[in-house]
Every structure is written in C-alpha cells, then in structure tokens.
C-alpha cells in the first residue's frame, strides 16, 4: 500500500514543470507528460521539473550538514503509523495520513516575486495536483493541512498533509 501511494505521489508531482517562460505548468495526465518527455529528448532537451528530488522522510533537514546533497525544491514523503481494519475477502482497509515535507531554499523566488509569495505559489501545486487524485489501491487523496517550518537557516520546510483511503492485500 505505502509503495503504491509513494509512487503515485511522485508520478503525479512530476507532472509539474516549468514552461519556456518559467511558469508552472501541470500536465493533465501522465501520458501527456511522457509524450512531452519524449518530444524533449528528440530535441536534445530536458523538461524542467518543478520538484527536483523525491525520497522518504528521514529528518533530512535536521541533518543537512551530514546528508548527501539533493536538489531543491525537494519532496520527502512521511507516512503516519497506519491502523488497518479487516474487510471482506481478507483485504485490509485504512485511512493513512501522509506528510509531504517540501524543502526549498529560503531564497526561492518565482517570476520576480519575493520569496514568501514564491513559496506560497509553489505550495499550491501539491494541492492542485494531488487533491482528489487516486491510484492503484488508494482513492480520493484529500489535502487536510499545511504548516511551514522556518527553524532552518537556509532552508524552509513546509509540510502538506494528505489523507486517503486504501484497500488491498
């Protein structure tokens, strides 16, 4: 279950790219994104993905000096402990909480805005992309919370909270 949710989140957030004018663009679906990737390869270009790094959360920001470098904006996925309920035919049901730790440099800017407004524009993307999304084994991802952590010198860690319903083996 967690693997499917993680892969679904990554696949969906990779639909956010910068267009040629450096404006956020969200491909409507993965097929169109894959076609754009192939078209860019034919032109010896690469798409400019908004989110540059994905991984599981492991207090990455707290140990930044000892961490391997990763590009920002980065998205780290954290799962709350999942409580399963038995259902028909031996399947498990749950409603997991998922935290997306979105890490940006404190100097992140977008379209000549100040860093605060740029950050808020960036943080709208997970909601726009993931809210009501579904994938293999999970349904109706819901955006249920946001918080911003300014406790780091050169980085800002924002946490977007989602919940969904999962049913599976």
Integer-rounded radius of gyration: 17 Å
Distance between the termini: 8 Å
CATH superfamily heading of the domain at 51-168: Myoviridae tail sheath stabiliser
User: How many beta-strand segments?
Assistant: 10
Secondary-structure-based class equals alpha+beta
Q: Taking all residues together, what is the mean pLDDT?
A: 90
Helical fraction equals: 10-25%
- The CATH topology name of the domain at 51-168 reads STM4215-like
Short key terms for the protein model shown above:
169 residues; alpha+beta; STM4215-like; seven-stranded mixed beta sheet; three-stranded antiparallel beta sheet; 10 strands; 24% helix; 34% strand; globular
Characterization of this structure:
There is one protein chain. This protein is an alpha+beta fold and 169 residues long. The strands form two sheets. Strands 4, 5, 6, 7, 8, 9 and 10 form a seven-stranded mixed beta sheet that branches. It has a three-stranded antiparallel beta sheet with strand order 2-1-3, covered by helices on one side. It has a domain at 51-168: Myoviridae tail sheath stabiliser (STM4215-like, 2-Layer Sandwich), CATH 3.30.2000. A hairpin with a 5-residue loop joins strand 6 (85-86) and strand 7. It starts with a helix and ends with a strand. It has helices spanning 2-13, 30-42, 115-130, and strands at 16-18, 24-26, 48-49, 53-56, 74-79, 85-86, 92-94, 97-105, 138-149, 155-168. Helices cover 24% and strands 34% of the residues.
């Amino acid at each position: 279950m967690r693997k499917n949710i993680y892969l679904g989140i990554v696949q969906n957030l990779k639909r956010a790219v910068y267009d040629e004018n450096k404006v956020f663009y969200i491909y409507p679906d993965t097929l169109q994104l894959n076609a754009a990737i192939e078209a860019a390869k034919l032109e010896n270009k690469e798409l400019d993905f908004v989110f540059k790094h994905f991984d599981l959360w492991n207090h990455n920001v707290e140990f930044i000096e000892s961490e391997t470098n990763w590009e920002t904006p980065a998205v780290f996925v954290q799962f709350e402990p999942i409580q399963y309920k038995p259902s028909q035919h031996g399947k498990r049901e749950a409603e997991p909480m998922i935290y997306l730790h979105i890490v940006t440099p404190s100097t992140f800017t977008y379209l000549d805005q100040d860093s605060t407004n740029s950050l808020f524009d960036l943080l709208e993307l997970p909601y726009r992309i993931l809210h009501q999304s579904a994938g293999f084994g999970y349904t109706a991802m819901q955006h249920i919370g946001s918080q911003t952590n300014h406790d780091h010198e050169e980085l800002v860690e924002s946490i977007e909270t989602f919940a969904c319903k999962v049913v599976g083996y």
